[in-house]
Amino acid sequence: MSEILRLNAVSRRFSGLQALREVTFSVGKGEVLGLIGPNGAGKTTLVNTVCGVTPANSGAIIFDGRDITRIKTYQAARLGLSRTFQIVQPFAEFTALDNVAAAALFSQAGESIKSAREEARAHLAFVGLESQAMQPAATLTLAMRKRLELAKALAMKPKLLFLDEVNAGLNSAEVERATELIHQLASSGITIVMIEHLMKVVLNVCTRIIVLHNGQLIADGTPRDVISNPAVVDAYLGQQYAQRNAAHG
Amino acid sequence: MLAAQIVINALVLGSLYACIAIGFSLVWGVLNVINLIHGSMIVLGAYLAWGLYQALAVSPWYVLPVAVPLFFVFGYLLQRLLLNRVISAPVLVTLTLTFGLDLILNNAMIYFFKADYRKLTLKPPLGSVSLFGVVVPVDRLIATVLALALTGLLYILLRRSRVGRAIVAVRLDRDAAVLMGVDVKSIYAIAFGIGAALAGSAGVLMALIFPISALTSTAYLDKAFVVCVLGGLGSVSGALAGGLLLALAEGIGSATIGPAYATTLSFAMLIVFLLVRPQGLLGRKGFE
Amino acid sequence: MTRANLALLILVACLAALPLFGGAYALRLGTMACMYAVLALSWNVVGGFAGYPSFATAAFFGFGAYVTGVLLNAGVSLTVATLAALAGGFLLAGLLGVVLLRLRGHYFAIASLSLVGVLRELVNNATDLTGGGMGLNIPLASGSSILADATFFFYAMWGLLLATALMLVTVSISKLGFGLVCIRQNETAANMIGLNATLYKSMAFGLSACFVAAAGGVYAAWVHYIDPSDVFDILYSVKPIVMTLMGGLGSPLGALCGALLYLALEEVVWRNYIQIHSGVLGLLIVALLLLLPHGIVSLRITGLWRRAKHV
Fold first, then answer.
1. Which of A129, A164, B188, C217 could make an S-S bridge to C85, C-beta 3.0–4.6 Å?
2. ipTM score of the complex?
3. pTM of the model
């Protein structure tokens, strides 16, 4: 499987806090990589660093054969890196349709407002928001806004999609719905890296898992290996979880 | 010696600048309002000192205890009755509103006092003293000492009194202050009142040194801006740092590239700091 | 084309008929109206669409006035001089924009306000070129009768107004306009979807400055004499904002209506109270902002309001 993203000893510091310490891993094309770890481990910082929001202090990031370590946010978006936000950030006055159209319009070359809106309809349909297309984004429920985020991310025709806790704040029915969407995305060939706390979802969907703790990568492997890794159990999963899972095999 | 002159001048002028700016800084830092009537309030204070001296031969330092409560009430009411209504409005609205208020105040002053420059000359004149080989006029020295005393008083108020602590709390984190039971509306009015009192008092002191006219209000306002951006918002130390830095830069600039460029220099420093370090020397980030 | 945009263009077209109805006095009023309308409409690009509260209008107005004045003194024709002001204004704003538009909210407002002061002082000090504080005399651009002169300048300003209105309508239906509105709502998210916010903002700033500079140029030729405190007057920054707020719609049509309404008020009510003229302006501003919140009715500005409440 070819590599689409590689991080080499990437570090990032925020005056006094070392958020990422020499993180090294790679993501293969078409993988669904889970990124887990306790709060404050640096997961969102990692995504921010790859996407150019908080550039790396040292190390290198190679995306699709291209060095993107010093890249600007909007350039990353145009290259095929897309992400959702933990705290959703829609364009509040725009309709759901225009929210998605905006994403299509600016990340793809040669789009017009008209063609972007047409594409937006298709993406809204994919996430199940067609009937909300003309509603202002501010009036949507949280679950709908999360799906809107996803539609926007997809409108950017990403090669690599970062999902940052898409399930936070959703009830179990909504979580199942979201997981189903992720499955569909994965099967369409998009590489996915998902930050997630719900282990159920992670184990269901991910082909590989990496674990961050205090800015460091402490594990990298198949789901089975990772959840039985003692360092991971110590830092994040906890003994109870490990025992429960060992019992189920 | 030139260096000593520049330093002494900078200390004197810097303290005056700090005094001019501190009220403005407090209001900006605590209420997040850029109070464009600040300059006019300083001029009004100067007129007060001048008027009382002309009419009753009251020296400016005796006017201070009168100016402080007068201006405090003025500021308190202005905030409570008018400004409070737009307190959460975007910067566009609050800036334009205080601009409108300034037009009213400034126009009123020109109408009643005319635009002619007045001078408050003390009789008998106080002469000058020599400090480290530099000649400093006594009235300027007194003004400097009083200016520092005023800023010192504010510092103590903010540190030691309940109201002062509440003001600092609101400045640091408005929402947390609300949760702690602080009556924020009241604090806003009090802070604005203090800002006005400081402006009026600064004006009384300025009357000793600079010519008085409503036309100078913009100059005072501009200085206050620059000091705030250079030194940081909402703190006494910030105002002092900013005032000193500005006075020093002007002094050195005057000596090297000429006094005509003094105003340009201060504007240029303002813009450079806004771009490079908007929170100023001592300020905290995040007062958009 | 939306109805509002259409109404805007129709209104602009109607204004062209003014010379048929009035003499030199009406033409003077009309020229001022067109000038202020140019300023208000131009401001809409950076303040309305992009949501950056710029107080720099006076800086570019003065810049244009002096560029034109100096060029006219050098024998250049009015058309070329005005075009130079237009191009110069666009470039200056575009370059400054890259730097200034990194600031947000209050800081941007202050920086843009200071720009007026900086340019004024620079012009004041460049005595050889600009005459400094003593002002600049500008040769008469057209040598005929008062009425012909007045008509000429009215149509010159009107032409600028038409150009500004067309620019505004074009931007509002273009990708640039769409992008600016994205930036206004959420600049971080706008960057995230591939929008080069710095470029867009600079272009907006440039567009908001170029016609203002040209208007300054026409103004300079019209009044024959300018000095720094006259053209770099903060009021040229504040009045367009007040007009836009008065128009109540926060939209281009609103800006034009606000400009016309404001000038009507200024002439009718205040010509009689010249001494307290600025005081009455102040009262109007205060009354407008406090008592007419429904005047600030557009989603745009109330949207900003709502967002500001969460700050």
1. C217
2. 0.86
3. 0.84
